[in-house]
Structure prediction request, 568 residues.
Amino acid sequence: MNKKWGPGRLLLPLLLALGVGSAQAQVTNFSQDVNASIDLGLDWLDSSGAFNNPSSAGDATGLTTLALLEKRASADLDADPQGYNNANAADQARMRRSVAYMIGSTASTSFYAYRDGGFLMAMSVYLLSGGPDRGDHPDLPAALPNDVIGTINDLFDRIAANQGDSGQNLGYWCYTNGLCPDSSTTQLVVAGLSAVRRVYSSDDYGDAGRLAQLNTLAEISRDAYEANATDESDVCDGIANNDAGHGYQGGDSFPSPATHQQTASGTWIQLVGGSNLNTDSVQDYLNWARTRYRYTDIAGNDWANSSYYYYLWSSSKAYEFIEASGLEPAGGNIGIEDIGSLAPGANPACDARQVHLDPASVPRVPLFGGQGGGYYDDPAEQPRIYFDYAYTLLNYQSPAGVYNANGAPGRWNSFASQAYSILVLSRSTGGGCVDSDGDGVCDADDNCPTEPNEDQSDRDQDGVGDVCDNCPDVFNPDQEDSNGNGIGDACEDQMLMCDMDGDEDVDRADLRLISVLRGESVPPADPAADFDGDKIITVNDARWCAQQCTRKNCAEDDVQQVFQKGGG
Prediction:
């Protein structure tokens, strides 16, 4: 099985989760404005030298290249990211120049978290979406290996060598080493690891040794973020939930209250390390975000003159990972749809929270027209996190295409801030791979994301793998199970054909009744016992029913035992 990153591999499950089908184009007024905004944003990067001279983007080259790679092909909500293969010739040339710069920069520098994580994301997506591995990077000095996978391996190896390995630093990456529990720098590294997981599990570039090492690194980070959650359950009185987030730094030596960005990055770092929506610590983080949801503060970083758009990117990334997994909340757990659903409360700590914007009531973004409320009213545009974030960014964008928080000029890193904004609008996860069951198949591609099934066997071709299909031999993509007995409605009637005694269970007693008729022809024997249709009652009929059993005491050994005893 080829486990490459490919156009739409992460996007499609997200769209399905939002109720957007793939049968027809989903172009809305809002999606057209978003697409226009992305084009404007990329034009600004281009005119500023990010692609024509990648070195001018410096440490942000990975992010700017990723923004170009993960641009959607059209305003259709179902459109694939362009990747390398679907880019035009000019953009492909820009990508190759950027990759050449990244190869050279990696060879001439040592570990730096922000740079290396971004490089690893971009180069992984580039390679797995058709970018050439070697022979097409003429800008490289002759002394350097003209080799993308080699550079990816070098980046991975030095990332692995610099993870904090003891005390409060365990599981984190600092700026240039592992000597501080910095959540902000760690997130970029783990984003890179999540992307390269696809490379190391692919047919073309599979690397079992590095993949195993990667999974260990991710698990260590996951455990750190679970252990270092900041318990703030008493902050929002009246909200019945467990409530814990993550601050700028982990550990107990640095007073670091939980923030939106760090809690969000902590959420998806746990996912990359093998947790899922229903893991207790992930639920704690999501509850923290639920009681404090403020998309305008996340976008503007609470600082009027700064646009730290990686805050917004980190936040959206967590929710997109969860939606791409296809998992539903279990029991009393919350899902992504619950964030942004709480109205401002009476508690001073939480009364500033915001609810989702309503596309039917907000006016069109002024940059793209003067229409009032209702312009974005469309069944495909529901109140949700993505609309909140995208609408906010579009309102921050200047006519020149640059995104400025609250119209202010301050920018931590112009190229990086611009790229993060575009990536949010593109719903990008940076080629990231969450593999909750550890079977080597990313959740977004896995037909059983919580049960290991590397072979992805799906006998009835309904998109649900055999190991988790409640009706593996009958097509039932909806997995409906009205009585909650673990047997899909689509095949329950078929299974209960074996219920010879009418007790609504298939068990050893039914096998005995079939065995009584063994050797008899149909008719006069009961035709209901001839399950294989060969007009004679044999052990094969019992074996067929054993496969349909609803009780634990019904299996092949029971078939043999029952028939050896002659029905008794």
